[in-house]
Amino acid sequence: MSASQASELAIHGGKPVIDWEFAPRVTMGEEEAEAAARVVRSGVLSGFQGSVGPDFLGGPEVRRFEEEWASYFGVQHAITVNSWTSGLIAMIGAIQIEPGDEVIVTPWSMCASATCVLHWGAIPVFADIDPITFCLDPEAVEKAITPRTRAILAVDIFGQSADISALRALADRYGLWLLSDSAQAPGARVGARFAGTLADVGGFSLNRHKHIQTGEGGVLVTDHPEVAQRVRMIRNHAEAVVAPMGISDIRNMVGFNFRLGEIEAAIGSCQLRRLHEAVQRRREIAALFDNGLSGLAGLTLPAVALGNTHVYYIYAMRVDPAVLGVSRDWVADALRAEGVQCVASSYANLHRLPMFERKIAFGSGGAPWNTGTRSVDPEYGLGLCPVAEDLEENLYLGLEICDFELPDNEVRGILTAFDKVWAYVDGR
Ligand SMILES: *Cc1c(COP(=O)(O)O)cnc(C)c1O
Predict the structure, then answer these.
(1) Which of 45, 100, 171, 355 could make an S-S bridge to 372, C-beta 3.0–4.6 Å?
(2) Ligand 1: distance of its center to the CA of 291 in Å?
């Protein structure tokens, strides 16, 4: 093969740099198999009962896992749920939200970070994000605050904490709850503290895509005893137990079944012991990318705010089409053609979902936007969050490094593919 053939881009018919399939990341081991078997042999796959008594809080595996999680993360209360979507719904209910109240959310996240608000008849109000960290921009948040605002729900997107000190200052100044969705950032730190634990209420996902998993599952964390109590109620059929428990404030005591099973909890205990290692390897991979990609023109690498530890759920970059002379989508396709299987060129613009643009959620009549005494209808749709829109349409390029094992040789292959694509772009 001649040099020109070797360097011909795969997207133009040349030979791809990577001609093998990346191995998916495997987080399960013998310990998890043993733990699951132990629960199966016990015959008790869930210890929960939806009535007053010790079983209201779940079985032994659930309770042990919650204690371990609380101790690892340094919080008073860790409460397991059957998904983090469930956890988000419980979190919004537990802050005593009222129909028509507003919660400031980010457009750049998984959809549950915004829809959790709707489930209580409350209104998500989108604020734009910071173009460098992709997390909520505190200035945009402040502009979105109205007399109906009750909470800010920050998302530690891609594995780095949102600007929690600026958001805390806003929350304190305006008397708002500060909530955190740290689904993608277990083990990330702000100074010495773990991301997710600096908000009033935070939490994590244990779905199969995350750093550690139980298949489905989530954990909510808080130091507020009343919030913790209300989350435990909402998790387990609140309405049935308020009277026997002597609870008179029954606002939002409309329960669900958000209970985690014993098998998942037993596996979760094993997974928690693997968290540090999972995070360390993602950080190593990110350091290799930082090193190998830093010279490429028109490519902005992830920026880590001072004092933060990033856990790289996604290695998230921006391309500059004006510098490159090609579009982001072309770059992504060229990299995919070279065999880079973890390329992402789209993430989210939640304010543009049909649910928000058309304001149709519960039924066809506009609920919950038409609930209560709303004076101003929030706007959704194109133009509301220009930074997030530009990222989604033109700039965002990610490497989904949590999904794959990515041994060093694959990381080198990815770097070679970038070099090859950039050599072509630079040489035109
Ligand atoms: C995964 C994820 C969720 C939802 O978690 P589930 O456990 O799948 O319900 C919410 N928010 C973000 C940012 C996520 O990445």
Answers:
(1) 100
(2) 30
Which residue intervals of 236-385 are DSSP H helices?
A: 238-241, 262-293, 321-324, 328-337, 354-357
Question: How much distance in Å is there from the Cα of 91 to the middle of ligand 1?
Answer: 14
By the 8 A CB rule, do 352 and 381 touch? yes
Question: What would the pLDDT profile of 99-153 be if each residue is shown by its tens digit?
Answer: 999 999 999 999 999 999 999 999 999 999 999 999 999 999 999 999 999 999 9
**Nearest atom, ligand 1, residue 155 CA:** 13
Q: For residues 193 and 337, is the Cβ–Cβ distance under 8 A?
A: no
Which amino acid type is present at position 194?
F
DSSP 216: S
Question: How long is the chain?
Answer: 428
Rounded to whole angstroms, the Cα distance separating 113 from 85 reads 8
Segment 226-238, tens digit of pLDDT: 999 999 999 999 9
Cα-based distances in Å from 141 to 103, 205, 303, 333: 10, 24, 21, 35
CB neighbourhood size of 296 (10 A): 21
Top mutation candidate among 179, 207, 264 for ligand 1, by most atoms within 8 Å of CB: 207
CB 316 within 8 A of CB 396: yes
Task: Please compute the mean of the pLDDT values over residues 282-294 and round it to a whole number.
Answer: 98
SS3 269: helix
Token pair of 189, please? 């730190």
Sheet holding 189-190, edge to edge: 193-194, 189-190, 308-309
